[in-house]
Write a structure and sequence with these properties.
The protein is an alpha/beta fold. The protein has eight helices and seven strands. The protein binds nicotinamide-adenine-dinucleotide. The site of nicotinamide-adenine-dinucleotide has 32 residues, from helix 1, helix 4 and helix 6. Pfam families: adh_short.
């Protein structure tokens, strides 16, 4: 029997990290093509700006992805809101940090792990029952090109993004025969806030240092726009890829 490919166009999707960058571009692109979208982000202001450009059936939700209980509550809200089966769950929200291994602040590292890894796990666990209940749909977890290879000053970020890949690859194997699939996205060098600013949890001095180190890390990588990234991710999911590279090799 031919494998059923996930179809997104015109169908409901959920996207975290939709207040800016790749998540916003994905939400606008899929909504423009007819998808009802449920969009979530911890940044209420940015989310409002995204929502202002969305049309039709839309659910907006301020959400911290690291909060597992709130992710489950949000999944219940999405279940009630859904006008048709949920086609895809994009666990896309993420943050970045830059530090040498020795200078890393363990609290900052844990903050990043909570969002970039546990946020993805929380979103997967909260939404997977909806997809499995439908017998269709795809979990799309955002890793990074740094989930495929290490990078200096990015040890925590790389560790979390490798973990997203390991988690999602295992999930995909568990899901065989259910009609549900799981995919990782590996962006690299997309012009978004995460690349422009880097982020430190506190510490303005660290934030400046982080910016310079992030800029240096990305210098060698060709840059593209979040709209182009959204297009590659959309096509990649619909073509049934297990790993979608949105890095220099993809454009
Ligand atoms: P971005 O900073 O523009 O978007 C990230 C979004 O995540 C922001 O809107 C932010 O508010 C949101 N977010 C942060 N913490 C959150 C939390 N706790 N709960 C909910 N939302 C939260 O950056 P982007 O490049 O669009 O990033 C999207 C994803 O792509 C991230 O997972 C990032 O790690 C990944 N990525 C991006 C690149 C790139 O080149 N831009 C490279 C590799 C991976």
């Amino acid at each position: 029997m031919p494998r059923q490919l996930p179809r997104l166009t015109g169908r409901p999707v959920m996207i975290t990290g939709a207040a800016s960058g790749i998540g916003r571009s994905l939400a606008l692109r899929l909504n423009r093509l007819g998808s009802p979208v449920a969009v979530a982000d911890v940044d209420a202001t940015g989310l409002k700006q995204t929502a202002a450009s969305l049309r039709g059936t839309v659910l907006t939700r301020v959400l911290d992805v690291s909060d597992a209980a709130d992710q489950r509550k949000f999944a219940d809200e999405v279940r009630d809101w859904l006008p048709a089966p949920l086609a895809a769950v994009f666990n896309n929200a993420g943050v970045a940090l830059s530090s040498t291994v020795l200078d890393a602040d363990p609290e900052d590292d844990n903050w990043l792990y909570d969002i970039n890894f546990h946020g993805v796990v929380n979103g997967t666990r909260a939404f997977l029952p909806i997809l499995v209940g439908q017998g269709e749909g795809v979990i799309v977890n955002t890793s990074s090109v740094f989930g495929l290879a290490g990078m200096p000053y990015q040890s925590a970020y790389c560790a979390a993004k490798f973990a997203v890949r390991g988690f999602t690859d295992s999930l995909r194997q568990e899901l065989r025969g259910t009609g549900v699939s799981a995919v990782t996205v590996h962006p690299g060098g997309i012009k978004t806030n995460i690349v422009r600013n880097g982020r430190m949890r506190q510490d303005p001095e660290g934030r400046e240092r982080s910016k310079e180190e992030m800029a240096a890390s990305f210098e060698a990588i060709a840059m593209t726009t979040p709209d182009k990234a959204a297009q590659i991710i959309h096509r990649g999911v619909e073509s049934g890829k297990a790993r979608i590279l949105v890095g220099p090799d993809a454009y």
